[in-house]
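User: Can you help me understand a structure? I only have the sequence.
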Amino acid sequence: MKKAYISPSLMCVDLMNVQKDIEDLEEAGVDYLHVDMMDNHFVPNITLSVDFMKALKKITRIPLDIHLMIEKPEQTIRLLDFCDSNDIISVHYESTVHVQTVLNSIKDMEVKAGVALNPGTPVCVLEDLLPDLDVVICMTVNPGFSGQKLIPATLNKIFRLRDMLDKAGYPQILIEVDGNVSFENAVKMQEAGADIYVAGTSSIFTREGSVRENTKKFREIIGR
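Assistant: Let's start by predicting it. Here is the structure, written out as C-alpha cells:
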C-alpha cells in the first residue's frame, strides 16, 4: 500500500493555545500542517495570515501545507519566501488568469507546487499544467468554511484524477483531499486514490478523543 500523509487543518486549532495544539500534533506524528489563507473575496471568509505562518516556522519543524484561497495569489507568493523544499504552496486554478506563471514562481522558490480545484472545476483543466505540479488538491466541499458535508460526486472525481495522472505519466503527483475528511470518508477517498488527507473537525479534531488518539485512529484507518 502506498504511503498516506496526514495534514491537520489549522483552521480547527484553538487560536488562544496554538503552541499547545502544535505540540500535540508533533507528538501525534502528523506529516504536514494545513494552513488555509482566505481573503474574503475568493471565499467568503478570512483566516490565517502570512505572519501566522512565519510564527509557525519558529515553533515547529513540521512542513507547512499552505492553501491559498485568495484572489491574485501571485501578489502573495513573494511574501512566502520563508518556505523551504519540504513545504507545499497550493493556489486555486480559479483564482488567477495566469496559473502557470504562479506555479513557476513557486517552483523558482524550490517549494512544492500545488493546484486546488473547486468541486465544479473539471480535472481536464490540469492537462497542460502537469509538468509544473507536485500536488493537486481535490476540494470535496466548496471552499470557505469547515464543518461542511462531503459532496458525493467528488469521490468519483478523485478516481478520475488519479486515472488521468497515471495515464499521463505523472504517478508521482500527489492527490490531496480537503473537505469533510472524516474517518468514514477517508476510507472512500483512499479507495479513490487520495494521498494527503486534510483532517479537521470530523476526524483529528473531533471531541470524541484527543488529537493523539484521533491521529492514531486515522492512521490505522488509512493503513499507514
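Now, to help you interpret it: The longest strand covers residues 33-38. Strands lie at 5-8, 33-38, 64-69, 88-92, 112-117, 135-139, 174-178, 196-199. Let me know which part you'd like to focus on.
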